Amino acid sequence: MVYLRDRNEIEAIRESAQLVAMTLDMLGRRVRPGISTAELDRLAEAFIREHGARPAFKGYRGFPASICPSINDEVVHAIPGDRALREGDVISIDVGVEKNGYFGDAARTFTVGEPTKDVRRLLQVTREALEKGIEQARAGRRVGDISHAIQSHVERNGFSVVRELVGHGIGRAMHEEPNVPNYGPPDRGPRLMAGQVIAIEPMVNIGGPEVMTQPDGWTVVTKDGSLSAHFEHTVVVGEQGPEILSRAGED
Prior knowledge:
Blueprint: H1 7-30, H2 37-50, E1 54-55, E2 67-71, E3 74-76, E4 90-99, E5 102-111, H3 117-135, H4 143-156, E6 160-161, E7 167-169, E8 176-180, E9 197-200, E10 203-205, E11 211-213, E12 220-222, E13 228-230, E14 233-236, E15 243-244
Helix pairs in contact: 1-2, 3-4
């Protein structure tokens, strides 16, 4: 079932999504060589709870932590631990929040120290692909228009889109219908309607698109060991255009 949210519900989702953005701002300031992903997770959980909310990922389908900090060839869903960041690493941090019964979700990729030219370009193209996907989130268009806009931009720039993982609806639950793939032909899939809230999240690899899940049952990595980037926003579909609920000062 696809839900259409009224203005009060959208404002409630915005509150959660804004807290996600604030959490990502805070974590981005702390990304540096030597800090562990467990410490980033601890900081995130404390910050979220101090703001009267709860980390939506913790306990979700058994996930043991509050954030997903995925490093280098890790695409998504990495479990925080003792691993310390090193100069030159790339870390994608995915954060979800539930406050007053509504959810927000967003992700950003950060560099540890000065990025190489290739890494800088990977992050730029992934961010641009997200923006191009969001631009299609208009009433009357289809999910496939978002998917095609993302895939076209990524592949035009020589990178690849992960296909096994997709965006999703969001609101009273972390994952709702419809699924929002990052690839596919335009003018396909469900029609978008004003008031839908969706999480759009391209995952882009420098190498091939193939991924696999590690033995921990959670961490998804690139099969060829290439670097990956991940950007995500919570977005409202509008009659006149999309509205990003998880936009923040440092985004």
